[in-house]
Amino acid sequence: MIDLGLSKLAIIGVVALIVIGPEKLPKVARMAGTLYGRAQRYLHDVKSEVSREIQLDELRNLQKEVHDSAAEFKSDVEFHMQSSVQEVEAAWRGDIQPSAPAPAASMDNLERKAKDFRRKKLVRSSAVPAWYKHRNGAKTRVLSGAARVRKFRPGVKSTNSFF
After folding, report:
1. How far is Cα 30 from Cα 73, in angstroms, rounded to an integer?
2. HSE, side-chain direction, 13 A CA sphere, residue 143
3. pLDDT tens, 134-159?
């Protein structure tokens, strides 16, 4: 970029005044301004066109990647479907004996799952103490849908009378 300071602009103005003359200087300055504006607009258009082309190229690459992955997925699904159809047809014809059913879950596995369930339930239910829930007004019990409707229905007062 050209470094134009105030002193350099003054020197250019004096030289232009001497060379062009005072009569034609305003006309030349206007023409230079319009040419400078046109050049700026042209450069802006070129920059926007280049950035548009770059974005378009990126979109083309993305489209190509998506198309390739979709084609790969389609071929994978078709392969698995074809193999499944062949297995079903072979089983229908009786070429393949059905496989033995999976063995029942062992007792140790069931006990481990039950223990994990109880532990997780304990963690879920005891995460926040009941006294804290009562103090802050959090829900401690679940209301059914009918109870919620009765509680929040306008004009109906809920009576809590216990005998």
Report:
1. 64
2. 10
3. 777 766 677 788 887 888 787 766 56
pTM of the model: 0.38
pLDDT tens string 58-91: 999 999 999 999 999 999 999 999 999 988 888 8
- Show me where the domains of the chain are located: 7-93, 107-152
Q: Report d(CA 49, CA 45) in Å as an integer.
A: 6
Q: Which phi-psi region, left, alpha or beta, contains residue 69 (left: φ > 0; alpha: ψ -120 to 50)?
A: alpha
Sequence-distant (≥ 6) Cβ neighbours of residue 87 within 8 angstroms: 96
Give the per-residue SS3 of the chain.
Answer: CCCCCHHHHHHHHHHHHHHHCCCCHHHHHHHHHHHHHHHHHHHHHHHHHHHHHHHHHHHHHHHHHHHHHHHHHHHHHHHHHHHHHHHHHHHHHCCCCCCCCCCCCCHHHHHHHHHHHHHHHHHHHCCCCHHHHHHHCCCCCCCCHHHHHHHHCCCCCCCCCCC
Token readout for 51 is: 């950035």
